[in-house]
Amino acid sequence: MGAPYGIDKMSSVGDETEVFVLDTSAFIAGYGSPRSGESLYTVPAVKGEIRAGGLQRFRLENAERTGLLIVLKPEEKYRKEVQRVLSELGETRVLSEADLQVLSLGIQLQGEGNRTIIVSDDYAVQNIADRMMLGIKSVRTRGIKRRYKWITYCPGCRRTFEDPPIDNVCSVCGTFLKRRPSTERKID
After folding, report:
1. Does residue 128 share a domain with residue 107?
2. Are both 163 and 103 inside the same structural domain?
3. Distances (CA, A) of 135 to 21, 64, 187
4. Is the pLDDT of residue 12 over 60?
5. Distance separating the N- and C-terminal Cα atoms of the chain
6. Spatial distance between the Cα atoms of 25 and 144, rounded to a whole number of angstroms
7. Which string of DSSP letters, residue by residue, matches 57-75?
8. For position 82, what pLDDT does the model report?
């Protein structure tokens, strides 16, 4: 679906407030100074990924201290919903803890009646956010143009895996597993 609402508009519409959930790439790219009317959120794991003493960490902590950024850990039930979608899309092994928290917080805020936009340059995060009907905003990249469902397969014996082993090695022939898109859909 892409962004089901205009992500360039920075205002409240009806009872819905537009909120932005920032991942690590947003801070690295310098995003984080809100415009008038923007509500910015991030998660503890993103804060942990940003190097202490660096400019990005300074910006994050300053925005948090002045109330321009809210650092919030999402509720566990939303994490389970994200993991369900990850399984459907074949993305179970590609996201970091920070990515999981960002997406979980996104659907939590959406469930509270907000128009939620995930700010990320990570294509896997964008793919999943689009599937969960969250808005997407890229900072330095063009963003996704197609949404993919991935399949994990063994290039040796051609076996496919719904839930690939943790070590990413084929249990039949011992070859390292690979991923390929099995279906795609153009983003509006």
Report:
1. yes
2. no
3. 10, 23, 12
4. no
5. 6
6. 15
7. HHHHHHHHHTTSEEE-PPP
8. 93
* Tens digits of residue pLDDT in 96-108: 999 999 999 999 9
**Residue 185 is which amino acid?**
R
Count of beta carbons in the 10 Å neighbourhood of residue 145: 9
Give me the pLDDT at residue 31, please.
77
Structural domain boundaries, residue 59: 18-137
> Residue 172 and residue 122: Cα distance in Å, rounded?
32
Assign residue 51 the CATH number of its domain. 3.40.50.1010
pLDDT of residue 5: 28
The residue written with tokens 């983003």 in the block is 187
Q: Which tokens in the block code for residue 82? A: 């994200």
**128 shares a domain with 156:** no
Nearest to 34 by CA among 60, 4, 2: 60
Query: In terms of domains, do 67 and 112 share one?
Result: yes
SS3 state at 92:
coil
Cβ neighbours around 73 below 10 Å, total: 13
Q: Does the pLDDT value for residue 7 go beyond 60?
A: no
Q: Are 82 and 34 members of one domain?
A: yes
Regarding whether 103 and 49 lie in a shared domain, the answer is yes
**When comparing pLDDT for 95 and 12, which is higher?**
95
User: What tokens does 36 get?
Assistant: 């008038």
